[in-house]
Amino acid sequence: MLVFDYASNGTLHEHLHCYEEGCQFSWTRRMKIVIGIARGLKYLHTEVEPPFTISELNSSAVYLTEEFSPKLVDFESWKTILERSEKNSGTISSQGAVCVLPNSLEARHHDTKGNVHAFGVLLLEIISGRQPYCKEKGYLVDWVSNFLKAKDYLEKPEVMSHLVNPELKNFRDDDLKVICEVITLCINPDTTARPSMREICSMLESRIDTSVSVDLKSSSLAWAELALLS
């Protein structure tokens, strides 16, 4: 049995693809979720020994709390660890940290670059509202590759904006540029050229503003009300 904090808002996948209000997720809320996921992965990759990776990192593996803070879940890995630990091929400490991992599982858990690629795809899913794969449109990564081939696309807001869900209003061009930079780095076919989650986290935290004032400024009505109150 696994015990973890209750996430009352279900999965990120449900909000992006199943609920009508998914398209109403504000840009700032999406950015907070993105940074929260990045911080979680950085912790798993750099502060856990040995490094731990999510076996299937996607929007279904991200649970949202009452405040919409993201929680990363990997049921498959823990199921495997628990099953093998019962056979004495792996052990788990009293704090739940993995001490000894079976060979194949240990090798996969060191594949942090695979998680980095999946994080890039997840970013695309969050800003575009599109599934990573669908029969009609194919793979999301193939779709975005057409935009990445455009010369100096990072300097062209009109090109980058095509990656954003048309129903999502009031996104910030500066934020989108950072997100596109991170996506480009994460999905690089050359795994050695992909950044670490520590580097990605630094990029996101230093260049994306998720303060309340930014969220208010995205709504002209809310900003006008705030100005009157002050």
From TrEMBL:
Subcellular location: Endomembrane system
Gene Ontology annotations for the cellular component aspect, listed alphabetically: endomembrane system
Entry keyword set: Kinase, Membrane, Receptor, Signal, Transferase, Transmembrane, Transmembrane helix
Primary localisation category: membrane
A Pfam family the protein falls into: PK_Tyr_Ser-Thr
InterPro entries in UniProt: Kinase-like_dom_sf, Prot_kinase_dom, Ser-Thr/Tyr_kinase_cat_dom
Membrane topology classification: Single-pass type I membrane protein
Protein name: Putative LRR receptor-like protein kinase
Gene source species: Trifolium pratense (Red clover)
